């Protein structure tokens, strides 16, 4: 095999970068890729920081977050003084250094009073987002106010303001912010997705579906199509889910082989729910690996055609922060005729999460039996 290398270049000019960045912001990712048809193989040679940053953002939206992270890392190594490169690197470092350490890095960076207002606003917004994840809402809101004073027209700051309100379970307030944002930026994919999430949390599924469908019809966003796949799959609409899974794949031309294998796994499950055992077996075989090959083997058995799917009508209970176990217990208890608000359960058994022992103890205190079981024999 002959290897092909490309000499380092500065990359596209500023006008081209701005054009592609605008298309990305409006969710027109396939159109952006059409302007840079060879970017996935050439971008690694681009030494101009804005060019590689834009290429990384595009790669992420076209389905290859791994490639995007690699390019952001490379960009920061070449341009450690660039604040945009630093912001992407700091975001990634949260997973390895931890949020408190990254907040210290941001604090040190912000001591440089020569940062241009737009970049300072972005760094403040990142710090606010991290503080929100630590439940430090007062400081987070304060930083977002400072960021807005520096860059009042930034949709990213408004979006993060809505996210912060969502973290506080102030869903109506968060939804109002996303509506204001979409009024001025109707194709802003982040706001469309968040708006749909909030509507689902408010038990307004029809409005959420309308929001996602409108967003998918006006953008080329793979993210919105994935959400429609999840939305229809969770509501037991496998035909619609298969359509949106195909749409997601169409809008994600840079998907890795591993990602495409996972999509085949989803297809196997959806075909099984449709009762199409041949298609399910074919998709499971395409996945490979012991788990899916065993499923394919089981689907080939004569007994498979007479099997029935049993679905219990367990209701949905929206959790709050770190109350997933109480919400689950509340749903199961209601199914068995013992209704209990999940917040009341949380008060009794939670402290920064929930232990298995606490879950079982609460269930037994309600005259319910807890039993261990395995999914497979």
Please supply descriptive tags for the structure shown above.
68% helix; disordered N terminus; single chain; mainly alpha
Write the layout of secondary structure elements.
Layout: H1 14-25, H2 29-35, H3 39-42, H4 49-61, H5 65-78, H6 83-97, H7 99-110, H8 117-133, H9 137-150, H10 155-167, H11 171-184, H12 189-201, H13 205-218, H14 222-234, H15 238-250, H16 257-274, H17 277-287, H18 289-299, H19 324-335, H20 342-349, H21 356-365
Helix pairs in contact: 1-2, 1-4, 4-5, 5-6, 6-7, 6-8, 7-8, 8-9, 8-10, 9-10, 10-11, 10-12, 11-12, 12-13, 13-14, 14-15, 15-16, 16-17, 17-18, 19-20
Helix content: 55-70%
Mean pLDDT metric:
91
Number of strands: 0
- Beta-strand percent range: under 5%
Tally of contiguous helical segments: 21
Which structural class best describes the helix and strand composition?
mainly alpha
> What is the straight-line distance between the termini?
48 Å
The oligomeric state is single chain
Order of helices and strands: HHHHHHHHHHHHHHHHHHHHH
Our Rg estimate from Cα atoms comes to 24 Å
> Which ranges are low-confidence, i.e. pLDDT below 50, for 5 or more consecutive residues?
1-5
- Taken from the alpha-carbon principal axes, the silhouette is globular
Main sheet, how many strands, which sense, barrel? Answer: none
